[in-house]
Amino acid sequence: MRIVVTKYVLMICIAWCCLCSCRSYKDQIVYFQNIDDIEALSSDTIYSSPLIKKGDALIINVLGDDPNVVAPFNMPAYSYLAPGNDNVYSSTMLQCYTVDTEGYVLFPVIGRVLLAGKTKKEAQNYLQREIGEIVNNPIVNIQYENYKVSILGEVAKPGVHRFKNERVTLLDLIAEAGDITLYGQRNNVLLIRDNDGKREFHRLDLTDGEVFKSSAYYLQQNDIVYIEPNESKKKNAKYSQTDQFNISLVSTIVSMVTMLTTLGITLFIK
What we know:
Elements: H1 2-29, E1 57-63, H2 67-70, E2 76-80, E3 88-94, E4 96-98, E5 104-107, E6 111-114, H3 120-132, E7 139-144, E8 148-153, E9 159-162, H4 170-176, E10 184-195, E11 198-204, E12 224-229, H5 231-236, H6 241-269
């Protein structure tokens, strides 16, 4: 009777270890584990339009009732046919305006205008008022030319990613980067943001559905996201390939010995 009880205790211990291991692994890689407990949330409650910053590149297009009247506000991009050649040609693409170090852009006809610190909508309304003093019913459209964010660390495609739409979420960037690898820490994502010359740091937990309520869930231009490697990857980085092979070999042998020992104990108990 005692042998039978010992046998079942051993089996329960082995099963418990396996379950704990699986649970721990799940906790590390599964996104939004408590999402069913999160109340529905409107994105407008946490989304705030990014502000135009110094160094931003903007494409500004002006429309009006008479295309000829608004034409001076839509300067085409010019370039030389070849280096040293005096001949130039105009492109069908519109001129790109760079926000200078003081937050201004030099715009045709109306001169320097302060756009830094404004949202895209605020900048459009501001230009419409300025141009409206010269032409009737102008419509101004602004697009970011350099809306880019960077992602580093444990993702399939790290690097700089560009977006046409400025309403970009952290998940959009991760999807664009091919998802986080199995070696990445999903519960400790670091976001670095430059806010008017000041560095901000945000820690985000993608295994928690509360991430959707974070003010850093929506990205801003030039944000940097870093996916830190987990402890297993950090430990492997300390060893050379030869060391890793030796460690792997020893680990395999230990696993086999453990398995044979367990099998022997089971057969002995029987």
